[in-house]
Amino acid sequence: MQTANSLSMSFLTLAESLHCAVNDVLLATKLDEQDNLASFREEFYIPSLGEEQPSPFDEQQKPKIYLCSNSLGLQPKHTEKKLLNHLETWKNRAVGGHFFGTEAWASIEDVPIPYLAKVVGALPSEVTCMNSLTVNLHLFLLAFYRPTPRKHKILIEASAFPSDDYAVQSQILLHGYSPEESIIRVAAKEDGFTFSENDVLDEIYNNVESLCLILLPGVHYLSGQVFPMEKIARTCQELDIFVGFDLAHAVGNVPLHLHDWGVDFACWCSYKYLCGGPGAIGGAFLHYRHANKGIKELPRLVGWWANRRETRFQMKSSLDCTPGVFGFQVSNPSVFSIVPVIAALEVFDRTSMLQIREKSIQLTGYLAFLIEREISDDIDIITPREPSQHGCQLSLRLKRHNLKQVHEALTCRGVVCDTRQPDVLRVAPFPLYNTYREVLEFVQILSSILRSTNS
Ligand SMILES: Cc1ncc(COP(=O)(O)O)c(C=O)c1O
Ligand SMILES: Nc1ccccc1C(=O)C[C@H](N)C(=O)O
């Protein structure tokens, strides 16, 4: 994999060969011309400046610079048609839709599986779409967190996403333990944002006697740091501790090999880089080695969708549990929540996570390179700089400017990104629709705002 240094050198060399400065639009244009994924931008709706207040002026039709896929990915153009098809089926066939067509509702969760398996590096029998992220976290925690007075601790990271923290706290309380005593929070490094691999591993080794489970993010929501998932998962296997990952910010962003790494369980939402739409159905992974554990060996909360499809409608009171992750399904999935996820995965399936990652390293690397050269007096990049440790997102910490003021000025100039108090801007160029020229324009806009705003 390229290093931050070798990437910077490649931008400098390209600029030199074009006889232009590194912040020249010529360089950005060249990078766009060389981009194998450039045509994918056409597959998505890009919000335009005039969206909130339609205007006849051309300037208002200009696309926004959308750098917020860490919160919500853009809408693929064919999502609407797919949804309308299902509305038509409902209108014209009503209950017949359960067994009609290639996306029959009674088995619609089968449709995204092959695509999803590729995106997260799983066997098709290890993944499904169900519920939402925090609900799936709870379902897996209920099965995998079986505390005993000796082994009752869960390891998470300090500054975990609050929903994950609340889920863990409530599970501990549910078993009659106390979050104060049963949660180990790995401390961040001195920067207060990122985590060292050794600190994580040391905490695991130091607490091996009392640790029951580890729940960490694949990519941290605040810093954008990629956690060493493989190393953590292999260590946990060696030590016989269950490990689960929250992949909200990792799925569709960085390549994952959940099966090979031996992760016990993982869950994610589909509305960020996966572009499945606001509140879209979530995803879940359960490693094959747990597939044949029934509800006695791996106790869980079940519903009728956990029952094998062949016998589901025999309506018996005894559960005929489907092996693997399907045995964790509770309810029949919401069709209007899963269809946009299928639509988005169909776009992903025309490329690969490898290609997406290749461009992402270049695109986010270019962003970091420009920021460091142009505005490092005013901004610290808190995301680790090495490509192996970041995905699409860079988290920018304002050294002296007011966050709200800067964010408002960016919004006025057509940049969409988000903030985390007190001083962090999150920006995430996404390979399937962002361009190098947008990245350059963003840095120029931010630079001019920082120069013209009081610090
Ligand atoms: C890391 C993380 N955990 C949990 C959530 C909450 O997800 P949901 O509301 O889908 O349960 C989010 C938000 O997307 C998140 O980023
Ligand atoms: N679903 C949302 C609804 C409203 C506002 C934000 C979200 C987010 O997803 C935030 C994201 N999880 C984050 O990393 O902060």
From TrEMBL:
The modification N6-(pyridoxal phosphate)lysine is found at K272. One of its GO terms (molecular function) is pyridoxal phosphate binding. Transmembrane segments: none annotated. Pyridoxal 5'-phosphate binds at L133, T134, F161, P162, S163, D164, D246, H249, Y271, W304, N332. Catalyzes the cleavage of L-kynurenine (L-Kyn) and L-3-hydroxykynurenine (L-3OHKyn) into anthranilic acid (AA) and 3-hydroxyanthranilic acid (3-OHAA), respectively. This is Kynureninase. The gene is KYNU. Gene3D superfamilies: Aspartate Aminotransferase, domain 1, Type I PLP-dependent aspartate aminotransferase-like (Major domain).
